Amino acid sequence: MSRAFGVLAALAVVIYQFLPDDRWWLTATQVGIGWVSVTAILAGAHRMPRRERLPWWLFAAGVFANATGIAVATIAAESYGLVDLPTPADPFFLTLFPAVAGGLAVLIRRRDRRPDRSALVDAATITTGFGLLAWVYVIAPRNLGDHMDRLAHATQVAYPIGDLLLIALTTRLLRSGGSRGAPFWWITASLAAFLLGDSAWVVLGNLGAEGEALANTPWIARLLESVFLVAFLLFGVAALHPGARQVAEPADSRPAGLGKGLLALLAGASMIAPAVLVAQTATGGVTDGWSIAFCSAVLFLLVVARMALLLREVERQAGQLRDLARSDELTGLPNRRAWNDELPRALERARRDGEPVAVAVLDLDHFKRYNDTFGHPAGDQLLKAASAAWHATLREVDVIARYGGEEFVVLLPAAGAGDGRQALERALAATPLGQTFSAGLAVWDCRETSDELIQRADTALYRAKKDGRARIEIAAGQPSNAAA
């Protein structure tokens, strides 16, 4: 349905270029295309669950108001001569901005369940840059000594402000997580078409008499009107697409950081202030110095904020990488690297405090047979369940780590052979799924290296396996106080 509507929409825009140069015919066609687009948006929303329809209803309201405003503008001008601002059509045209902005805000909120400060800073940076352009070339010139009253000024200024609102929310939408299928890009293209059409009228307005002449040229006016028709129709194409409901689905992962396109856009927005300053200097005088200075200061602060957030994210990811490098992926316990760092520190503390320290090596009995019987996924589940059960029986100061395969090591600070055996017996009794382990326990003799201590515990482990498994063996060569 979306493809068929897209083909018909393209055909309608082409036909519009060849209609008679009659304002009533053109108005009827523009309004008809707008209302057909509204019908398509509502039809697409109707296929979605009720809770997912709100953003599409808001889009439909905005398009309906804008398209209806075309009819109101023509009737007001042709029948009543109402062409000075504000016209009866302006409320309809301006309704587009809050309605579409509301729909975008709902989509952004649903796509990103958690706040994204970096995305907000990026949107603010781009909006600030374009905001300076709007102020210097659109808003400020409207207040320079003309005869228009305040309501007319407010109406004229409302349009560029509405465009800035859409720029901010469009940028924020592009920085959101979630699905980026065809409907997402159709919505983005529609917003871009609205902004392009408004920008074109602004440029023509700033060209003075030449711009007015160009705007009254039939084929140029027809082309600009077609831009808005395309914007209407793209919303309908997006709503009718089978993947339309995925646009509001929450993100599975955070969006990517500073890509090349985003970096170029941010750099361009940051250069707008100096570019305006250069342009005004080249034409003989800086007339908006305070505005340029204020915008430059805001952009500078936003760039600093973005750098701070980026550095914080880099630090967070570096911390995660450090944690991953020291954690066993399956069990979540410290891995061999973390153990090799911790054991020498524990021995040094024991030497300084004059306390014993014990080390045990555990090995699940008949683990290969268990894997062969129940499969490797079941073996992985056993390792996870056993390590969690053993960890629960130990003290907070004790450390258990996965040494490799089905082998684990336990560090027992301030524990001699007797305390160490009791701790291991509790762990042995807690082993799940009717399984057992063999263990070798060694108490540090205050002279040997950490490798030598582990070797003695490992030798005791093999003796436990040889003597029948499901048992704990004390390593030979213990110090005289090891049984304490």
UniProtKB/TrEMBL annotation:
Domain GGDEF, first and last residues per copy: 355-477
Residues passing through the membrane, by range: 25-44, 56-77, 89-108, 120-139, 151-171, 183-204, 219-240, 261-283, 289-311
Keyword Transmembrane helix: yes
Highest taxon of source: Bacteria
Key words, A-Z: Membrane, Transmembrane, Transmembrane helix
InterPro entries named in the record: Diguanylate_Cyclase, GGDEF_dom, Nucleotide_cyclase, Rev_trsase/Diguanyl_cyclase
NCBIfam families linked to this entry: GGDEF (TIGR00254)
Name used for this protein in its record: GGDEF domain-containing protein
Organism: Actinoplanes couchii
